[in-house]
Amino acid sequence: xxxxxxxxxxxxxxxxxxxxxxxxxxxxxxxxxxxGQGPAQIVEALIDRECAVHCADTDLAAxxxxxxxAPVAPEAADHLFVSALSPDLPGRLALGSxxxxxxxxxxVAPATLGQGARLRLSGPGVDGTLxxxxxxxxxxxxxxxxxxxxxxLGFELFLVDGDRVLGLPRSTRVExx
Amino acid sequence: xxxxxxxxxxxxxxxxxxxxxxxxxxRRKMLKAIAVPGxxxxxxxxxxxxxxxxxxxxxxxxxxxxxxxxxxKVIDQGADDSVNAASIRKFLARVSGAPTTNDALEADLIxxxxxxxxEVLREDQVLVLQVPNPEPLRPVQPNxxxxxxxxxxxxxGRMWLQLYEQIVRSGRVMQGASYPxxxxxxxxxxxxxxxxxxxxxxxMARHLTILSAGREKRLHVVPPFTRVEPLVFDxxxxxxxxxxxxxxxxxxxxxxxxxxxxxxxxxxxxxxxDSDLGVKTIRRREGExxxxxxxxxxxxxxxx
Amino acid sequence: MAYVATRGGERAMExxxxxxxxxxxxxTPERVAEVRAAMPYLVDRVMGEASLYDQDLAALALAQTGGxxxxxILLLRAWRTTQPRLTVADPxxxxxxxxxxxxxxxxxxxxxxxxxxxxxxYAHRILATEVxxxxxxxxAPVEPASRPSPARQPSVAAWQADNDLLTAPEPDxxxxxxxxxxxxxxxxxxxxxxxxxxxxxxxxxxxVLALGYAAQRGYGQAHPTVNELRLAEADVVVxxxxxxxxxxxxxxxxQAEVVSKQGEALGLGFSATLGWxxxxxxxxxxxxxxxxGAPKGSATEEEFFLYHTEGVESSGFCxxxxxxxxxxxxxxxxAMRDAKAxxxxxxRHAEPxx
Lengths: 177, 304, 354
Prior knowledge:
The complex is a heterotrimer. Chain A is an alpha/beta fold. Chain A has helices spanning 9-26, 40-46, 58-66, 141-148, and strands at residues 32-33, 52-56, 70-71, 79-82, 106-110, 112-122, 129-135, 156-161, 164-168, 173-176. Chain A has a single domain, classed as Bacterial phosphonate metabolism protein PhnH (Rossmann fold), CATH 3.40.50.11310. Chain A has a 7-stranded mixed sheet with strand order 1-9-8-5-4-2-3. Chain A has a 3-stranded antiparallel sheet with strand order 7-6-10, with no helix packed on it. Chain A starts with 8 loop residues before the first helix and ends with a strand. By secondary structure, chain C is of the alpha+beta class. Chain C contains 12 helices and 4 strands. In chain C, helix 3 packs across helix 4 and helix 3 crosses helix 5. The interface between A and B is large, with 47 and 52 residues. Chain C: One of its GO terms (biological process) is organic phosphonate metabolic process. Chain C: This is PhnI protein. Chain B: InterPro entries: PhnJ (IPR010306).
């Protein structure tokens, strides 16, 4: 074998998407660039028939269905794609168990990054504390998140604004300033 | 739906060897491992064209992350020229076309067995450590399901007891490499069989460390800026290997982790374990303008 | 330069592979065909442990590795992992098997009859040394029975369940992609039933035998009676995209049921694998029979035997000890020398007081 394989367009896109997600979650609060616009690329990079997905984003529904993932209620989902966050959503998410914290859900939602409510972040991946402005997240979501997290149980949140993404793992403490 | 949408063009080998579904699974598991630092996340761990126990866990992570622009460095026991490191580097380049380097400063992705490079890693770098045994509790509990329950309960009493018994018996903690360490104050992890010298490099580091055990099908992560605290008693401090005062006979480098080379006359000489640091030190001594990055240890002492 | 150049290592690796293959000569299509034809039981064993049914690929793997079994199986597993999953075949049922051999030690005769089939069980194991003196050993032709035994037969356990001697296992209703797949998910404990049976099916024969034998000798509580041992061929029935179901071909399979008295009912152990491999399925069924309630850490506990009979993992780990470990070794030496020095210092310190 002489020539090495060449990545397809799909491989290149999903590889770059994952790179952004990985660093977004590793350095909570630092906004990363996605290769394209919107959450569809996250579906491509992460979701297949091995997943249980709750999709409340009509623009994504067809794409999610094509992945073969099982469509489920929020409580049973390992991945959720929503068109808007609501204060009661954290209380409906899978948080994992003591034996399997990794069974906590991943939630992908739109938000405005760089303007809106100021949040102070701390925890793993944050060098001390970090302030970030996030809009389009309803009042009460952050307190709802705070209420349900019982580390190491919890859920991960990706906020997508066009071609930018911000990650908030369960290990991040969020204070609304 | 058309037949076209259900199929894809035939390829003799997927880019990066692993197919898209294997990569997606590893991506999902890596994200969870980042979110819960030090927690062992089970993953499918597909078979790869290398024997189990030879870096198949690290290889699957590298194969998932790699793209044609990822500059890769592969080391084994600190050396780029070890045959197994050469074999893995060759495989990664072959399945991805990615460029390779021996220089830790140039690398985007470093796959390593048993060492963390001596030069400080940056916040855009990923260190992938090969892990033979992901379970720090195995010496006190070989059964994986019981050990998992102990992690769930944060029940590390037997771990502490074992360390205490070593101190009573031998006057010190006898753990060599793989020193059990508490991550983010919650999970005890094995840092993989890196020497004690290297464990402090993971504490509040700027780079991302992904530890992957292919045979045991578990991965865990130390994100940047995360506490990694070796298990120690307040009155018995953590001790790295006593290498701070040793000098490399080949390069003259001093104050780094060394390989001991027994000599015919019964004595030993030492050479620096981080082979590329040794090479760069020699090149600099010979008058070349070589960039050597800041190192975690200076004059044999860890700088925080 | 003081350090070994990377190139040198690569050259050494290349030459070491050439040395390994130097005495084997060329791998030709004829050689592969001969391996396939001459050693069907070896090919079967390799296919079972690789969990990949393809006689040509298995014969090729054997030819390519010179019969280094662990290497041959790793080669096939690594090839298998890259293959797309096109569809999931219909379940194979015991009564649907095209049966070549089927024996029971539990009853003198069984519904459907004892079928001795192909076996060396009653052969006198005498080496045919005349072949080495230039003679050809031609096997005597088979004389067909006047009445062929029925090709398809029920299982003995089914009869026992009908007669209230054992509780038949709950049918597993998972179908298609919902069937847990141990090659795509990590094995966790307590294991899915599907994962247990899949792991045993692809387990290393020698490993299964060692632990199964330990259980049979008394390290397990249940002494197995071979309820039924069967060598058969199974149709691989798949669905055409147009909806037609059809057999894409037949694969050789082995299966064993073993039972033992557990209170007032019979306990049942089961195992099946691709290819014909009697030792493996009897030993594996014995482990299955003994696993329920086995103490943690015992040889018959599921976690213990499933982890330790995984041939690719165990052989890989075993040979990985050939890799350099001088960093970890140095780290241990440092702790040892320091502890020794401390002890000596304490002894020196204690002396003047005496």
